[in-house]
Structures are given as C-alpha cells and as structure tokens.
Amino acid sequence: MTLSSATPGFIDGLRTVLPDAAFREAEPRYFEEPRGRWQGRGVVVAPGDVEGVAHVVRACAEAGVPVVPYGGGTGLVGGQVAVDGPVPVILSLERMRAVRGLWPDENVMIVEAGAILQDIHSAADAANRLFPLSIAAKGSARIGGLLGTNAGGVNVLRYGNARDLCLGLEAVLPDGRVWHGLKRLRKDNTGYDLRNLLIGSEGTLGVITAATLKLAPRPAGEGTALMAVAGPRAALDLLALARDHMGEGISAFEIMHRQGLDFLAETLPDIRQPFAVPPEWCVLIDVGLARGLDPAAALEALFAEGFEAGLVSDGMIAQSQAQRHEFWEVREQIPEANRRIGSVSSHDISLPLSAIPDFIARGAGEIARIGDFRVNCFGHLGDGNLHYNVFPMPGRNRADHVAKRDAIKRAVHDLVHEMDGSVSAEHGIGRLKVEDLERYGDPVKLDAMRAIKAALDPAGIMNPGAVLRG
Question: N or C terminus: fewer CB in 10 A for the chain?
C-alpha cells in the first residue's frame, strides 16, 4: 500500500468518534527530539482509552496513514519524530496515565502507557514497594515509550532492563485489533511471546497501551558511595570485589571520567561535587541490603579491601539521604552538562565487561587519529553499557566538526563491533541508527525482523522509517 498523508478530511472523520480533548495543538514539543538532529511534523491525536487508540489505528490502516506513537518525547535516536514521507498521525498516549491496579503482596502493578515514570515510582513507594527502572528523564519519560525502547538506566545490574520488569501488555496491533495480554503471571508458557516482541520494537509493530509491571520489596537498608579508582580495569576489579562482599545487593555501579565532572563544573556550577579535586576516574556504587545488614559497614569494608589492593585511592560514603541525593545528582546531571557543551558525536554502546578497559584505551587512539577532541566516557559499568561521547576542544563548537561526525561514529562503532559489542545498548535504533543496524546486524536476524514486520504490519503504517528502512 502507498502511504497517504493525514488530511483535514481524515482528521474530521476521527472527530466524529473521538472527543475534542483527543485533538492537540501542534506544539513544538511533539516534533522535536532532545539532541536537535531532526524536526518532525504530523497531526497530534491523544485518545483517552484503548478503544480510542484502536479506532485511530484502524482508521489509519484503512486509509494508509502513517502512525508515530509518542510517549514523553525523551528518546535519543529519533524514533518519535517523522521527518519525511506522508504527514503522519502522532499518536500521543499522554491522556492514558491511570494506575489500573496495584497488588503489593504480588509485587505487581498495572499502569497505562502514558504514566510518567516518576509517578509510577511514587505509586509503588506509597505501597512500600519499588519499581526499579530509573533514568535521568524520569520526570517526563512515559512507560509506554520506555517499554517500546526497552530502556535500561542505572539499576539494570540488579533488576534488568524494562523487558525484565514487565509481565504483560495491552497493545493495539497495526490492523486496530486489541491484544489483551495484561496477565499478572510469572509463568505463562503458551506459545510465542508477543510481550517480548513488542518491547523494544519502537512502535513499529503496534502501540503499547498498558503494562503489567514487576515491583520489588524496598531494601531494608540502602547506601551509596563514591570511590576514586586507578582506572577502568581497577573499577572492574572493584566491581568483582563488591559482588564478593554483597552479592546481588549491588543496585548500581556507575563509572565517571574526570571530563564529565569538568563539564559539570563548567556548565552547572551550582551542583556540589563531593571531591575537592576531581579524580581521573571514579565509581558511584549504590547498594540495597536485607534487614539486619548494614550498608555503610559493607561499603566501608569494600573501600578498605579495595584500598589495600591498590584499586581505590579515595572515597566517601553517604551519611544521609540528602548526601545520597547529592552523589546521584552528580551522575544524573552529566547528560545535561554534555548537552550544554554540545557533542560532535554521541554513542550508546555495550561491551563484554572484560573488554571495556581495552576499548577505552583503543578508542582514545582512534579519536586522536581523526582530530583533536575531548572524550567523556561514563555510564553503567556494572552491565557493560558506556556512553562514549566526543566533544570539541575549548574555544570550538560542534558545528566546526560536522564534516568529521560520520568518521568519528564509524571509528567508534567499528571498534565496538570488532570487540563483540553492540552499537545500541539502551537507546534503541530509531531513525539515527538504521544504517548502523544494517551495517553491523546479523543478516539472518535482519531478515527475520523484516518478515515479522511484514506479517504484522503489511501496509507499513507503524512508525515507518524507524528501526527498519522504509
């Protein structure tokens, strides 16, 4: 089918079924993405329930109008903006924010796709439970988009990606039918797993409208420490030591380079940095332990053993919730500092843990061969996910290096691929990395993905141009 634009007549047809509240003004936020790489367009429709979503998708399927699902607009690979082709319907889930049910004894809650992550945290907290998925954009990111991209965040080490925190889905398929899969079961071995097919599909196979989420008991004791380490290899050795000490009690293990701390000092000077002199490398460790165990004592023992082994040279353990927040504020504001500096090329990559030190060393050499740049390497060391971002030198800006952006990306991604890593760890493919997926993806996997897309969305209306080339 040849796709068609969402014309005024088509929208008038939707108005006969949907209430006025479902139609949104074309505000810039619907057509922008955080890195400013693309400017989208479209007609924004925001149904208030799954039946409304089904009606919109069914009408789009009949008319051949593209559909771009829209959550909080926080995605970093352009999956939420349509930059070319026929004018699409931007299908926003923002009106579907309800918590449909919460079962503390089962550690389960059901929420609609438009629920903001911070609000989900608050609802779980009110029931003395924890929803572990946490990212810097938690105040605006919506759970439908987080599941659609299989988001990661800081707690993957302990609790897993979004995929691991979801038991069931309700979704509208590309022909407008509703899949009612909101089960609260931990075991349901009844054929193909549509849940895991839709999670991570970035709106190309359907629209997630609600999800059954796994909760966790709140740890009885929590603790946070910052430790200066000798380098990435020492950080990995410290991680292994921490696991020996605390097992699965480690919730997060983040690595930060001095470059990121310098960017914070330059662009966000009001953020208090714990170290008077920023170390070359440091790690942020967050732990949650069972009743009867003392997190501060465990972290002190870890520091002592790490210091004796020459892995750490300095450190501090948070003495209050306020100080824990201060430590985490440093880590969570690094992306904002990066944005203010303006990267030439940013990379969301993952590697086998043991390969990370060699990658960092070799990556610096590859970048130096292209030109004179600053590299800010930081991220989720515990699960092998690095954010490896390349910046201009002081006095210059990214516009000065546009001609070198592709060479930088190719050098970084070629090295990641050579070392058996992934060029997209947690941000997805979107529109930014379609060519990368074609270059580095397994051809058999790509053929299977295209076959699945053709089977579920033969007209190609669902988020055309994202993940797979249209």
Answer: N
Residue 136 is predicted with a pLDDT of: 87
Among 370, 353, 468, 466, smallest CA distance to 414 is for: 370
Q: Give the amino acid at 209.
A: T
Check pLDDT > 90 for residue 1.
no
CA 207 to chain centre: 18
Tokens of 37: 């790489």
**Polymer length in residues for the chain:** 470
Q: What is the largest CA-CA distance in the chain?
A: 73
pLDDT at res. 169: 98
Q: Which token pair is 264?
A: 């914070």
Task: Show the tokens assigned to 273.
Answer: 């940095």
Q: What is the pLDDT of residues 222-276, one digit of tens each?
A: 999 999 999 999 999 999 999 998 999 999 999 999 999 999 999 999 999 999 9
Instruction: With CA atoms as reference, report the closest residue to 166 among 180, 185, 153.
Output: 185
Q: HEC states along 280-299?
A: CEEEEEEEEECCCCCHHHHH
| Parallel, antiparallel or unpaired: strands 221-229 and 312-317 | antiparallel
Task: Compute the distance between CA of residue 109 and CA of residue 119 in angstroms, rounded to an integer.
Answer: 13
Residue 429's alpha-carbon distances to 90, 119, 144, in angstroms, are: 19, 27, 16
pLDDT reading at 38 higher than 90: no
Residue 431 has pLDDT above 90, yes or no: yes
Which string of DSSP letters, residue by residue, matches 258-272?
HHHHHHHHHH-TTSP
Number of H helices, E strands in the chain: 14, 17
Q: Please tell me the distance from the alpha carbon of residue 289 to that of residue 378, in angstroms, as a whole number.
A: 26
Q: How confident is the model at residue 339 (pLDDT cuts 50, 70, 90)?
A: very high
CB-CB contact of 409 with 363 (8 Å): no
